[in-house]
Amino acid sequence: MRDSLTGACNHFSCSKGATGMAGTSGGRPSICPTLLYADAKAAIRQLTEAFGFTELSVFGGEDGAVTHAELAFGNGAVMLGTKGTGGVFDRAMTGAGTTGVYVVVDDVDAHHRHAAEQGAEILMPPTDQDYGSRDYMARDLEGNVWSFGTYAPETAV
């Protein structure tokens, strides 16, 4: 996905055709941990070489940083990138640790409305992304960042 503020790819996706939208059919997970690393390239090497993940996609910025990557393991996936890219997720994660969670939902607006009514801190309102997804971002009571949207990475390789 391209960050709506900077135009750079960020943690959601700039994936192969970005055809994976809401639902979990076709090997698409409904929850994807999202991770930030100081050295995302080294993390990808370790996750694939030491832990057996399969690299699905890796996108880099002009500065060589990994702006977004997707790795699969079994029927699950993780999305990751480099800390300090300045995207919405990177800024939201400041002081929150290195992990966030992305959850696939069918109706982003209804989900957002309910979360807001329940007092959730909304970090980014529902936003149409250039790859076809619609998503929003929130912070829970302990400071964890949650993203909810219609994009679901394809994990079948």
Automatic annotation (TrEMBL):
GO terms for molecular function: dioxygenase activity. It comes from the Bacteria. Residues 28-151 form the VOC domain. Keywords: Dioxygenase, Oxidoreductase. PANTHER family: BNAUNNG04460D PROTEIN-RELATED, VOC DOMAIN-CONTAINING PROTEIN. This is Extradiol dioxygenase. It comes from Streptomyces djakartensis.
